[in-house]
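Sample intake sheet
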Amino acid sequence: MKKQSIFILFLFLLFVFYISSSFIAAKSNSSAIKIARLKYNGGGDWYSSRTALTNLIEYCNENLNTNIAKEERIVEPGSSELFNYPYIFATGHGNITFNNQEASNLRNYLMAGGFIHFCDNYGMDPFIRNAMKKVFPELAFVELPFNYPIYHQKFNFTNGLPKIHEHDGKRAQGFGLIYQGRLVCFYDYESDLGNGWEDLGTYPSDTEETREKALKMGANIIQYAFTK
């Protein structure tokens, strides 16, 4: 147990160094940070919202002075490549599952300083909760209060998550898994930020104003993940 704790501490320090140096490099435009989409198993369409991350990256580079690589990467939960990315995005409409090795790898990644953002495109809620319970059996999603720092980065959202798509007509909610005082997983529910990041016109009902709100909240999440 002592050896495992030392190993986790080493991973954490290594990851903190990587994120800190990456963010400094991004601000100086000397090197590009890479972010990734999670390719999970279970049958859900992990590839949905195809233009979302590309547009969010462009928005962050223009508004946060980051230098994020223009193309998203694809990473599987059981891969060692997971540790190369300070921010992981996961979305879809259907089932999501992690086997034991994937759950363990994802847990180590998050304990070491990583950050994952789940976006419920629609219908993912029970699957996200079940999958992450396997990663952190001891934790439960909690709704983040409106004064939580993730809502007050570059942009202020005094009423929490913006409502992008109607879905079931419920209010938008931001949930989190907090490990040892640190938010390691952010989950937007009944908001659908990912769809809001897509190309304007993808969803005729989305206005420029709605899309701008989604992108601003996305920029807050990226800034939070890179600096916290």
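Comment: Strands lie at 36-38, 73-75, 88-92, 116-120, 142-143, 173-179, 182-189. The chain has one domain: 2-227.
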